[in-house]
Design goal:
Layout lengths: L5 H4 L11 E8 L2 E8 L4 E3 L2 E3 L3 H7 L5 H7 L8 E7 L4 E6 L5 H10 L8 E4 L15
C-alpha cells in the first residue's frame, strides 16, 4: 500500500489518472450495495472529491438482486452505510463507516471501491447511522 498524494488523488483534465474510486455504499446483511466511479467522473465538494447521494441512488434504484430488494424494502437510511472520499490537498483517501460495521464489512467495502493500492483512513461519522445505531431513528 502507498500513501495517496495530490497527483494520485486528482483526476487529470484528459480523463486519465489514478484508478481510485469514490462513492456511496450500504451493507445489507453483509453484502455491499453502492455506486462508485473513478475520480475523473466524480464531483468536487469543498476540498473533497466524491460521488453520489444515498437518497438519490436509493430513490432511483431498480433492484436486480436480493440485497438491492432488501435495501428498497426500507427507508434509505435503515441499513449501515458510508462513503469513500478523496481529499487531494490533504493527501487522504477516507472511508466513512457506520460504527456498527465490523472489519469484514469494512474490507468488503474497500474491495467494492478497488482500493488495494492505497492506504485508506477509516472513520466513523455520526451522519452514517443505521436504524440500530441511531436511537432516534423512525421508519
Amino acid at each position: 500500500m502507498k500513501n495517496c498524494n495530490p497527483c494520485e488523488c486528482q483526476a487529470k483534465p484528459d480523463g486519465t489518472g489514478p484508478h481510485i474510486k469514490v462513492g456511496i455504499y450500504w451493507s445489507v446483511n453483509d453484502v455491499i450495495v453502492g455506486n462508485a466511479v473513478y475520480l475523473h467522473e466524480a464531483d468536487e465538494y469543498g476540498d473533497a472529491i466524491q460521488y453520489g447521494g444515498h437518497y438519490e441512488f436509493w430513490e432511483k434504484l431498480k433492484p436486480s438482486n436480493d440485497a438491492e430488494l432488501k435495501l428498497k424494502a426500507h427507508a434509505y437510511d435503515y441499513y449501515p452505510r458510508g462513503r469513500m472520499v478523496c481529499f487531494p490537498q490533504r493527501n487522504k483517501v477516507r472511508l466513512y463507516v457506520d460504527r456498527c460495521m465490523d472489519n469484514d464489512v469494512i474490507n468488503e467495502a474497500l474491495d467494492f471501491f478497488e482500493h488495494q493500492e492505497y492506504r485508506i483512513e477509516i472513520e466513523n461519522d455520526e451522519h452514517y447511522q443505521c436504524a440500530e445505531c441511531n436511537r432516534h431513528y423512525l421508519e
